[in-house]
Amino acid sequence: MARLLFLSFAILLLGGCGRSAVPDPQTVVAEDYDSFWLWAGVKPQPVLDRAQSIYILAGEVRAGDTGRFRQLRPATPDVSSSDLWLVIRVETLEWSPAVAAEIIELAEKWDRQDRPLTGVQIDFDAHTDGLEGYAAFLRSFRQILPGRFKLSITGLLDWSANGDPQGLSALADVVDEAVFQTYQDRASIPGYEQWLERLRDLPMPFRLGLVQGGQWQEPDRLRDMPNFRGFVVFLVNPSRVGATD
After folding, report:
1. What is the pTM of this model?
2. Per residue in 209-239, pLDDT tens?
3. Domain range for residue 147?
4. In a domain, 120, yes or no
5. What is the number of domains present in the chain?
């Protein structure tokens, strides 16, 4: 009987060791991070007061109205202690010259405040097989964007696995960073760990976008990747934290 009890205890102990070797995903708590997206309709949270970087949605270009830039934030953000990024949500790359000019004008307006504008981020879900075309569009925009502003883009995890190396290289030549979204809607993408390992050879500085309240387990070797620059948390209203619909 004593031997059976010892064996049972050993099995339980080994089982416990196996579980601890693979930590369970943790809920993304905004206070654990220092960079954030603030979208239209999302109320500012106290965590923004100590943020190092804030990416604020300023407007959008819709697919059915390529000649118009729709501003979503009428007032200039009151941000004095953070790197401020002006974000444009984009459904199409077929911009009219007037749209580009209006975006540049808004960027310069945001720059004339206590905290200068760090740069402009384009939020566009470019198809993985169209990265070279996207790079060409960004190159044209970069030419008219004042040189004091950096250029950032959001990216899809699929780029790292299936993106044409030539297209990724073309993007790296024109942008200052890419922020890859590890979530869809309000939930983390299942199996994101498999995609992240393929970012190791990405030829550009990148961050990872997490969603507040989502499930996240940081891969062991993530911080060893030479171009990894940290995280950006997509803030949601308190009633929507952890929602999956």
Report:
1. 0.86
2. 999 999 999 988 899 999 999 999 999 998 7
3. 27-240
4. yes
5. 1
